[in-house]
């Protein structure tokens, strides 16, 4: 059986194969198909990221829409090295801005809690004792929730989203070496808290 593929489908299939950097270059040139592809590629991951520290799904979706509308209408887009990190950082800033403008609301920065599932936690591998998996998970989640906002965000981006140090630096607006230190201190703190909790 032969499948007929239209020129439009062939063109769209080629865009799927492009890297983020290639798409970004086309977006700067106002290529709508490249823009749509970037939107499709990042909508779900950005929504998951937003919901990791914002419980308001409507606000998260609105901020993603706002982010992509701003990109689409911008006349000043320039070449950037880490597109994924740029999108995450921009979304985080939009969420913080929108939450700070909400009347009578608590600052989103104060309420940021990465709400990831225990099944997704790569950190459990850091604790290779013979304890029961569920007990380790409970201890780890308790310790994780005691980390600072920056430490939780760094752990989330590095271990869950697998950002490189350079991508994290762009997203967190600090240098790569500071990212390494932040993650190392967070992991050390997690280990101390989990070990301390086990001894009780």
Automatic annotation (TrEMBL):
InterPro entries reported in the protein's UniProt record: RNA_pol_sigma-70-like, RNA_pol_sigma-70_dom, RNA_pol_sigma70_r2, RNA_pol_sigma70_r4_t2, RNA_pol_sigma_r2, RNA_pol_sigma_r3/r4-like, WH-like_DNA-bd_sf
NCBIfam families for the chain: sigma70-ECF
Name assigned to this protein: Sigma-70 family RNA polymerase sigma factor
GO molecular function: DNA binding; sigma factor activity
GO biological process: DNA-templated transcription initiation
UniProt domain RNA polymerase sigma-70 region: residue ranges: 38-98
Keyword NADP carried by entry: no
Keywords: Sigma factor, Transcription, Transcription regulation
Gene3D superfamilies, alphabetized: 1.10.1740.10, Winged helix-like DNA-binding domain superfamily/Winged helix DNA-binding domain
């Amino acid at each position: 059986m032969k499948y007929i593929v239209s020129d439009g489908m062939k063109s769209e299939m080629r865009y799927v194969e492009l890297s983020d950097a290639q798409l970004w270059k086309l977006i700067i040139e106002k290529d709508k198909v490249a823009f749509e592809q970037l939107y499709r590629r990042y909508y779900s991951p950005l929504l998951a990221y937003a919901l990791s520290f914002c419980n308001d799904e409507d606000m998260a979706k609105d901020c993603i829409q706002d982010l992509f509308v701003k990109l689409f209408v911008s006349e000043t887009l320039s070449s950037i090295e880490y597109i994924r990190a740029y999108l995450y950082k921009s979304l985080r800033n939009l969420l913080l801005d929108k939450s700070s403008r909400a009347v009578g609301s608590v600052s989103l920065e104060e309420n940021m809690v990465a709400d990831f599932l225990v099944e997704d936690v790569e950190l459990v591998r850091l604790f290779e004792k013979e304890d029961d998996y569920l007990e380790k998970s409970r201890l780890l989640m308790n310790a994780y929730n005691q980390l600072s906002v920056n430490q939780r965000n760094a752990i989330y981006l590095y271990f869950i989203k697998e950002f490189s140090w350079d991508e994290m630096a762009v997203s967190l607006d600090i240098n790569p070496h500071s990212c390494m230190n932040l993650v190392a201190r967070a992991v050390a703190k997690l280990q101390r808290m989990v070990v301390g909790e086990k001894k009780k």
